[in-house]
Amino acid sequence: MVFAPPNADGSKVTLPAHYDNFIGGKWVPAQDGETFEDISPVDGKAFVTVARSKAADIDAAVQAATDAKDAWARTSTTERSNILLRIADRLEAHLEELAVLETWENGKPVRETLAADLPLAIDHFRYFAGAVRAQEGGISEIDHDTMAYHFHEPLGVVGQIIPWNFPILMATWKLAPALAAGNCVVLKPAEQTPVSILRVVELIADLLPDGVLNVVNGFGVEAGKPLASHTGIAKIAFTGETTTGRLIMQYASQNIIPVTLELGGKSPNVFFADVMAEDDAFFDKALEGFAMFALNQGEVCTCPSRALVQESIYDAFMEKAIARVNAITVGNPLDPAVMVGAQASSDQHEKILSYLDIGKQEGAKVLTGGSARTVDGLEGGYYIEPTVFEGDNSMRIFQEEIFGPVLSVTTFTDQDDALRIANDTLYGLGAGVWARDTNTAYRMGRGIEAGRVWVNCYHQYPAHAAFGGYKQSGIGRENHKMMLEHYQQTKNLLVSYSPDKLGFF
Amino acid sequence: MEPSVTTRVDLTPAAGELLACLERTHGPLMFHQSGGCCDGSSPMCYPAGDFLTSDADVLLGTLAPEGVTPIDFWMSASQYEYWKHTHLTVDVVPGRGSGFSVEAPEGVRFLIRSRLMTEEELVAFGLL
After folding, report:
1. Contact with chain B for residue A359, Cβ under 8 A
2. Does domain A18-263+473-491 have CATH number 3.40.605.10?
3. Structural domain total, chain B
4. Which of A120, A137, A218, A243 could form a disulfide with B34 if both were Cys (CB 3.0 to 4.6 A apart)?
5. Which CATH superfamily is domain A268-455 in?
6. Where is the Aldehyde dehydrogenase domain positioned along the sequence (chain A) (predicted)?
7. For position B84, which CATH number holds?
8. Residues A321, A365, A329, CA angle at the centre, nearest 5°?
9. Is A153 assigned a catalytic role?
């Protein structure tokens, strides 16, 4: 059954015509009354309007968060944990609705939102509900009469800027640890995808005290920049690209606050010859791993967009691998049988086409795909054929994050060669290693300069497995209990139980 | 010595007209070419001086559309190592990008179009 778009007959989703900002527990328009249109990439048409905010709206949100922060910081971890559990339950009760909305707004296939985006987001709130209950402070005995007590204290008000590729899940990765740790949040969704997050907020608004979560919508330059540079925030977290990442660090340096940055990658996916030693379930899994570049239309920071295949199996492996790519079902992302939907925006679509162009100019060979495509009945949508290039790691399509369903394949001779090519990149977010020999897999896994190396799997994002980048891919980790400390100060009480003076004065 | 006609980066006429409009709102402008996730690989346009450049960056060229204060185009030096064999043209397409680039609220987005440098250009820039 193909799901109906929002507000169509029989749809799981009923939306108002407009969403405002959520500040201090109330829905408020932008102070200057401006709005912008939210466009669905599925058909290229606007489907709702959203408040277009400026610095004054960010000021109001930071003030609301500041007003709420002392009371929220004093809530017990049990109370905050229970709230996160109730948020998870609320989202779970609306899972199908949110999955359809996420698909309509972002273009990703509903089979992914139903089976990955939403279940992972729900689980993430539960994970941090548990993690914060189990977090321990510390007692360090300096000497028999002197104790150092270490307490976790929230930072206060934090700013979070969310990308458009997994709107609800990426918001959750940032929100759940920040709220669990006792912070108040001012969150700016991506201007391409604000509405699914706003619907989430609508569903959970009654569960949080006013001002603990504030959502301000708008464009980067008008709302993101005033948030990132605001003197009232104690931390800024951002997922996006390197130039904005540097700019955010620059603003943070002026306020002397910490940042968490996740800035993308160009992840290698390395296939050693022994994957073909048997024609079995494992080989079938490895072929799926090859096709994983098309997950979420390639709009994933860890997209395995470079495949390195050992020379000795190249021809035989590629025959099977291209057949697997050609078996990808493309089309209306609201059809649960469809595996690849629409790119998230028109400019993203244009940018991918510009890379298909430079790839061909540089002499890369198109093994499959290579063009835009249209979907019947959705002619205004932004669709690209899953594309596989064969070329050399020095080509720009091997070095830049295209953020589309575009894979660049090359060969390697041996393990040293594989490691050299894998690490010949500016980035170090994700990587994949496929090998039956565990020593090979282990050495490659340790040798690749990336924060996440999937071994004999790819694109799994369970809570409790730390995620973040080496090199230019960013600073900090997400998705793990260590994230709590990224949203906390350490308070040390150094206490003397001795009645005796030191004797200096 | 570089021949004056040889550039690493150029503008389409539409991009030049947009820059003239943007300068009226934001004052003199600059570009820094991004890399990485989401809106990565897009050129980011900021009020001149907003983004701090350093020895970690390369000035690819200065764009001078008619009637507009010259606009420096920067890229990080490490990224340039992978891009240097290509000539870039700043174009503009409908869209809204992300990041803090100043054109996004106008419903358009700067976009890089690339071509391989000619042998003459590679020689001029000491790349051959």
Report:
1. no
2. yes
3. 1
4. A243
5. Aldehyde Dehydrogenase; Chain A, domain 2 (3.40.309.10)
6. 27-492
7. 2.60.300
8. 40
9. no
pLDDT in tens, A270-304: 999 999 999 999 999 999 999 999 999 999 999 99
Examine residue B85 and state whether it is found in any structural domain, yes or no: yes
Is residue B115 in a domain?
A: yes
List CB contacts (< 8 A) between A242 and chain B. Answer: 34-36, 40, 76, 79
pLDDT in tens, A369-411: 999 999 999 999 999 999 999 999 999 999 999 999 999 999 9
Contacts of A165 in chain B (CB under 8 A): 37-38
For A126, the token pair is: 């539960």
Structure tokens at A310: 């050992």
CA distance B26 to B29: 7
CA angle B120–B125–B128, rounded 5-degree value = 65
Letter string b/e over residues B95-119, b meaning 16 or more CB atoms within 10 A of that residue's CB: bbbbbbbbbbbeebbbbbbbeebee
**In the A/B pair of chains, how many CB contacts fall below 8 A?**
164
The residue ranges of chain A whose pLDDT is under 50 are none
Are the beta carbons of B96 and A347 separated by less than 8 Å?
yes
Q: Is A66 on the interface with B (CB under 8 A)?
A: no
Q: Does residue B56 lie in a domain region?
A: yes
Q: Is the pLDDT confidence value at B74 over 50?
A: yes
Per-residue pLDDT, B2: 43
